[in-house]
Each structure stands twice: as structure tokens, then as C-alpha cells.
Amino acid sequence: MPPSVDPKKPPQTLMQGNVAVAEAAIRVGCRFFGGYPITPSSEVMMRIAQLLRENNGTFIQMEDEIASICAVIGASWSGAKAMTATSGPGFSLMQEGLGYAYFTETPLVLVDVQRAGPATGQATHVAQGDVMQFKYGSHGDYYPIALAPWSVQELYDLTIRSFNLAEKYRVPVFLATDEAIGHARENIEIYEEFEIVDRVREGEGMPFGHDAPDGVPVMPAFGDGASLMVTGSTHNPQGFRKVDDPDVHNNLVTRLMRKTMDHVDDIVETEEYFLDDAEIAFFAFGISARTAVAAVRRLREKGVKAGLLRTRTLWPFPEKQITEVGKQVRALIVPELNKGMMASVARGYSQAPVHQINKTNGYVLEPEELIEYVEEELS
Amino acid sequence: MEKYNVYAARLLPKVDYLGSGHRACQGCGEVLAMRLVHKALGKNTIVASATGCMEIISSPYPESAWKVPWIHVAFENSAAVASGIEAGYKALMRKGKYPKRKINFVGYGGDGATADIGLQWLSGAMERGHDMVYVCYDNEAYMNTGIQRSSATPLGASTTTSPAGKASTGQQTWKKNMPEIIAAHNVPYVATVNPSYPFDMFQKVQKAAATPGPAYVHVYSSCPTGWRMRPELAVQIGRLATETGIFPLYEVENGVYRMTHEEGDLRPVRDYLKPQGRFRHLTDDLIDSIQARIRQDYRKLQLKVRMSQEERDGDE
Ligand SMILES: Cc1ncc(C[n+]2csc(CCOP(=O)(O)OP(=O)(O)O)c2C)c(N)n1
Ligand SMILES: [Mg+2]
Fold first, then answer.
1. What H or E segment, with its residue span, contains residue A354?
2. What CATH superfamily classification does B23-315 receive?
3. End-to-end CA distance of chain A
4. What is the pLDDT of residue A91?
5. Which residues of chain B are within 8 Å of residue A61 when distances are taken between CB atoms?
6. CB contact (8 A) between residue B149 and residue A39
7. pTM value?
8. Complex ipTM above 0.85?
9. Which fold has domain A12-189?
10. Integer Cα distance of B204 and A32 in angstroms
């Protein structure tokens, strides 16, 4: 499907983060949005409601988040690229549906504009507290993809990438953003052409199985002619419910894991800043990586050999990259807006000791806080 | 009373359990209603509140306004929380741990909390028969998060997710009838109230509290901010809502319908729609069709009242 943008409209440059998500989603072919208002994500819904109307798509404001994620699942099986956006309490309510989407290989994109939790918490303040919920929110073995933008530009770009990965791997993809980026207004570049991936609707094989153990099965839509049965119970490659066969369950859970975990090189994206000769390194994502890059620049001016490994992918976790950096530096510092979630994962891969800088008061980290930590603890 | 645009309900109790100093907008009809509800409920009251404007404006330190125990759990579940409070209290009273006395267990929610996300929780509480009062403060949209439509938003109203413009005339669906849905649960008491009619409201809330078992009160709550109208019209617009038949005042007691405030000839709905920015875009045709539907609904309600009357007369 070609991206349908109104040629009369000049490309916008100054954009709010949440609005950028909506704009990018339309261009990559999203034609269904089911959602529910919640701060600080509502602008995504408000903008896409309008854009879908102009682009022959469908927007439904559902009666809650459980309904929202289920409508997105339904729309995806009808063949549409589908998305929802939420935050905190809404993300929690969606977990059952997300586990279902993962288990039934339903492509969808969920934008989580993180706010400070748990519970209602600080609805209008930033946090990065859902790191573990992306990976462990639903019950059972679960290997979804979570991307972490650090700017409005990246919110735009990674929205496109989220859809592409969802379509390519038939998996729910989380766009793990936060209040600070979602509400930021920045100049962005909107390019004319980019890659658009669409799910394979016709082809060899069963809709829930594949000869290759890490393969992605074809996904016909309802009405495409296949006699589809879709169930969140354990199912065989045809999709028939088969809950008492140990092999069927084990094969399915294993194949789903391999579908993402055997493709980490394709999925995981990291960026390095001043790492070549670094003696200490930050490891960060999202808004905290922006703090870190500023801190690194200033530390360099002071003669400290600091660097930054920034990840654009939370899950699958950038294991290899952490291992490499961990061999080189004498300390790895993880600044994040939670009590140390990414740091605890990084400890499993880094040979260098992992330090953590945590802020959980609803505000972003300042570069000074990072610089101070380095000067006091690591010089 | 028609002669006066503003009047004070001096005969109501002076004491307030929802104090002043809260953070509601100027002209908030919802907080006015909540204050009146608490005059009627009195001090032996425990409140379970849903997320929403009333939760936000009444609870922040140092502007917390509550003089009765209050709990906020989440957006969807005040009816379930109130169910638990009631059941827990009853158990402890039965065991003799607490003295036996009348306590009002109340659950609160806005229209979104009640008609959308919290509907099944409310249905469960009403069906189980807890001795509680559920109050829905209906300002006809999700106001706390920025004026998104709910299933209680009236046809034609412009909100941020049902915006009026070239492609749309605002909300496309007719308002969900919550009082009827709860009446269909066969609970002992259902009432509609409007703070522009404070005495009617006061009596019905007291009746709801005195009713053993579940009671449901649906409160008209004008919202100048979300409806884009002048704040000083908050009370007047409420009167127009009832005078036009858009928000009739009635009660359903053990299945028996009764109008508690009769309007002779209904005023044209145009009088109600005109002062509100959310309806500004409506064409004459649309207004006519709204008018027809309002008349029809009002007539249906009158028939239910008449049927109740005939049944009662037949019994005598
Ligand atoms: C699970 C969940 N979803 C969404 C929200 C966001 N939210 C908080 S209040 C609110 C709107 C409340 O609307 P309503 O119930 O009509 O009450 P009002 O604010 O209009 O009085 C929303 C959508 C939330 N807190 N929790
Ligand atoms: Mg409301």
C-alpha cells in the first residue's frame, strides 16, 4: 500500500512527539486504531482519529483498554495494520490481550507513553518504569519486541520500524516511549520514501507453523479463503486447539521464542558515542540516553574518557553489545528513571561492574547528576 | 422560581462533608452536585471514588476537601471497591467487632467511569445486592483527560475524539441510558437528579441512602469547560436540561416509575443547545431530529410512569 499523504500539505517540521507517532503510523499504512484516553498518551489518539478519517481508515474509541487491545487484535486479523496507544494503568489492563497477540502471532503496535507508577502514580510525569512489563507483563514465556526512541524524530522513525517489525515477524511490538519525549516538540525531517513491510498473506505452509524452526508463517486474513481458526489456547500449525499434547505446546513456545531470539541481529539496534577509547561507559535508552550523551560530552571536556552505548531496542536485550563494552571499560553506568531495571539486566552480561543512577521523582535526569556521580564515585 | 436566574437553597443543611478549597473549575456543576450529595448523605459515609475530575480536584494536599473517609483505587472499579468495603464492614458487624449502625457505602464515578470502563463492575455490584449507593456524575465526556467522548456524550456534541468539522457533525451515537440499564437490574432504587433542583436532589439521595440494598443515582453535572459555555450558566443550563425534557427528573422505586418534577409543555431543545459551544455547529435539521428523539424518549418515560400508576391503582 503506498503511503497516502496529502501532496498539497507541506511536510510538517515542528512536531509534538505523540503527534509524530500518529503521522508516521498513517504513512506506514496503519488503518485501524482502537484506543482509550489516558494521560500522557491521548494526543496520539486525538491526532490519529483525524488522520484515519482523512485516509479512509477506522478509529474507534473503545470503552476501556481491554477492549482497545482486543479490537486491535480483531482488526489485525481482518488484514489491517493496527495500533493502540496507552500508558501506566491502561498498559496493565492490556496485558492479557498482549499475551494472546504474542501467542497467536498477531502483528500490532502498542505505543506506551510511560508515566510514573505504579498504580495511578504521577499521571503527568515522566518515568521509565515499564521496562520489565514490556518483557514480563503477560504470563508465560514471552518474547515480544520493544523499541525505545530518544527524540521526536526517532518517535517518527521507530513508529515506522515498529510496524515493519510487527509485520515481518508477526509479533506485537511495543514503542516504549515516555512523557518527556511524547510531549516534546522538536523539528523533524519527514522523508519521502522509506521501506514498508507488509505481512505475507499468501504462500506455502500453515498459518501457525513453519518448517524452519525460526520461521514466520504466512498470515491470511479472515476472508482470504483459508479456513482460519485463531485461538489463545495451545494450537497446532493449522491453528486447531490442541492442549494436551506436550510436544505441540513445547514446539509452539520454542518456535515463538526463536522467531524473535534467533533474529536479534536484525532487531536490536544500538549506537555508540565516544566509545573507542572510553574507560567508563554509560548504557542508556530513551530520554535518559539524551542526558547521558550530554554528560559524556562535558566529561570529555574535563578530560574523563567517558562514552555511551545507547540502545534503541529494549527487548530483545542488547546482550552482545553490553558484553563487548563490558570487556573494554572499568565501569558501566546505567542511568534510568526507575530503580534499576535495565541495570539489573545489564549485570548479567557485563564483565565490568555495573553502577546505577536512578531517579524516580517524575523528572528527567540532568547531565550534572551523571557528571557528579562519575566524579564522586569513579575518579 | 422561574423569575430568578440564581437562587440559594437556604433550607438545605449548612454542614458540608465535601469542604471548600477544592480545585474544581469555575462553574463546575459536578462538584456542586457532589457537595449536595454529601449534605444529603451526612457524616456516616464512606466514599470509594473512581479516577476522574472529582477525584483529582478533591484530593490534592493541601486542598483535600473530604471530611469523610475516602478511597480511590483506579478508574474502573469504585463499585467493586465499595462492594468490598460494605461486605467487610457487614462481616465485622455480624461478628460483633463493630457496633451495628447505619453507614452509607457509596461508589462514585463520572460518566466514563460508569457507562464505559466501569459498567461491568457496577453491574456486578448491583446484581449482588450490596447495601450501597452508586452515584454517577454525568458531565457527558471524559473531562479529566481532555474532553474525549464517552458513551454518555449526547448526539452532536463536539469533543476531541468526536470533533465536529467537515467530515463529522460531532458525536454520532445517542446517549447511553444508564438509569434504564440499572433499572433493568431490578435494584430497589434508581433516580435521576440535577443540582439545579437541589431539594428534589436532596430528597432522592436521602431515599437512596435509606434504601436497603443497592441504589443508583444519576447526576446531571454541567461542565462549562468541556461544554464550552460561560461558567455562570452552570445552574441555568441544568434547569434548561430538565425544562426541555433532555434530563427528566424521575425515580424508579421497586420497579415503579414516578416523575418527581413534571414539566408542562417542554421547551424547545434549541434553548438548551444554543448557549453551548459543543453544539454550535448543529444545523436546523440536526436540531429537529434531536428534538424529535427527545420527545419520543420523554413520551416513553411518561408511558412507563403511567403504566406504573395504573398497576398501582389496579392493586388498590
Ligand atoms: C485504566 C485507566 N484508563 C484510563 C485512565 C485515564 N483517565 C483518568 S480519568 C479519565 C476520564 C474520566 O472521565 P469521567 O469518568 O467521565 O469523569 P470526569 O473526569 O469527566 O468527571 C481517564 C480517561 C485511567 N486513569 N485508568
Ligand atoms: Mg465525565
1. strand A354-358
2. Thiamin diphosphate (ThDP)-binding fold, Pyr/PP domains (3.40.50.970)
3. 55
4. 98
5. 148-149, 161-162
6. no
7. 0.95
8. yes
9. Rossmann fold (3.40.50)
10. 44
